[in-house]
Design goal:
Blueprint lengths: L1 H15 L8 H8 L4 H14 L7 H12 L4 H14 L2 H11 L8 H17 L4 H13 L5 H15 L10 H10 L3 H14 L1
Helix pairs in contact: 1-3, 2-3, 3-5, 4-5, 4-6, 5-7, 6-7, 7-9, 8-9, 9-11, 10-11
């Protein structure tokens, strides 16, 4: 597997210069399934660079993604959460939604933040995922003791979704105003102001 991982790193490098590596998608999947974290990380990097939502091998990756999302190791959980927004398609979103939602209550704030962003991308390709995810995202946003990075991620998601249908997010106006005044994060303030102007 070390040899295959090294070869995959070379392919990733060549792919950055414009060479196609879609032919190696099965090998990418093999390296993703490695039990060694460093090899697994190379596999996920290759998946982000070479897989597309229509890549056929993604069907075979579903169980691997489920296993990694359910891992007890935070770095291992992060790999699919970082990769999924780049390759998500409706069938994959439907299959993984029930595995991703519990990660919103993970003890590690980085996992919660990555989960919120992943759910946003899922909602774009599979809008039905927003129905079970929205109450949990709303809880994150209204929780005053939440980690600021997780709150900022939730605000970004609300603002991006709110640009499409701003009236749906009016009940959150008091909390968003509070974050605008006391948040201390300029980028978050810009997002909130942008959302306010779309409602006018």
């Amino acid at each position: 597997m070390d040899l295959k991982t090294t070869a995959l790193l070379k392919l990733i490098y060549l792919e950055m210069f414009g060479h196609d590596m879609s032919w190696a998608s099965f090998h990418v999947l093999e390296v993703m399934s490695s039990s060694k974290y460093l090899q697994k990380r190379v596999g996920y990097l290759a998946a982000v660079q070479s897989f597309r939502p229509e890549t056929e091998v993604l069907m075979l990756a579903t169980n691997l993604l489920k296993k990694d999302i359910a891992s007890s190791s935070a770095p291992t959980i992060s790999l699919p959460l970082i990769s999924l927004p780049h390759v998500i398609n409706p069938s994959l979103a439907m299959a993984l939604l029930s595995d991703i939602l519990p990660r919103l209550s993970h003890s590690n704030p980085n996992i919660r933040k990555k989960t919120v962003v992943t759910l946003y991308r899922m909602a774009l390709v599979y809008p039905d995922s927003l129905q079970p995810a929205w109450p949990k995202i709303k809880d994150i946003l209204t929780n005053e003791t939440e980690d600021p990075s997780v709150t900022a991620a939730a605000v970004n998601v609300v603002c991006e979704l709110g640009c499409r249908r701003p009236t749906d997010f009016l009940p959150l106006a008091p909390r968003l105003f509070e974050l605008l005044i006391d948040g201390g994060n300029n980028w978050m303030a810009i997002k909130i102001i942008k959302l306010v102007f779309t409602t006018l």
